[in-house]
Amino acid sequence: MYVFKIDPENRVTAHTGTKPIHAPEGEHCFADPKELARLINKWPATRLVEIWNKLPHTKKVLRFTDRKTARERIWSAIQSLQPSSLEQKSKPRHAKAKAKSNPFGTREGTKAERMIALLSRPSGATLAEIMAETGWQAHSVRGFISGQLSRRLGLRIKSFKNGGERTYRIVKGETA
Questions:
Q1: Is-contact 8 47, C-beta < 8 A?
Q2: Which fold has domain 111-175?
Q3: pTM given for the model
Q4: Most-buried pick from 4, 49, 87, 136 (CB within 10 A)?
Q5: Start-end ranges of CATH 1.10.10.10 in the chain?
Q6: What DSSP string runs through 66-134?
């Protein structure tokens, strides 16, 4: 069982529930949906949106329909959080170094990184160029753009025809 802590910057961390958690001023702890509900009833809806948008692997939102929806979605999303690395006794000696990542959250040298580089060009990239770079078929490219880049990473991708060829480009400074 985990105990979750929300800090003043609205970041949520998970901790093992074997011993009580000390919550300094401004931090709040909870272990079940009822405790979370008691906490969020006091908070403005904007704080709930900020908490949600800071959780990993969530699609950013501007608002929630109501507090119940916010609570259910936040509770569901935090279930995948792992305990804080500060609690772990020691790291295994054979642990691999984490791969460096770019600002978009992809690892160096991956097809995803190469695709993002192509789509970041001012002119974008044609479907044929992306297929040649990745070795993927057209349906795989389209699925990756839709599922990973747009939904998971929150990038805004513009699709248009340029000289009869389908072209994709990342719209700078905006997220989906």
A1: no
A2: Arc Repressor Mutant, subunit A (1.10.10)
A3: 0.47
A4: 4
A5: 111-175
A6: -HHHHHHHHHHHHTTPPBPTTTSS---TTPPPPPPB-TTSPBTTSHHHHHHHHHHSTT-EEHHHHHHHH
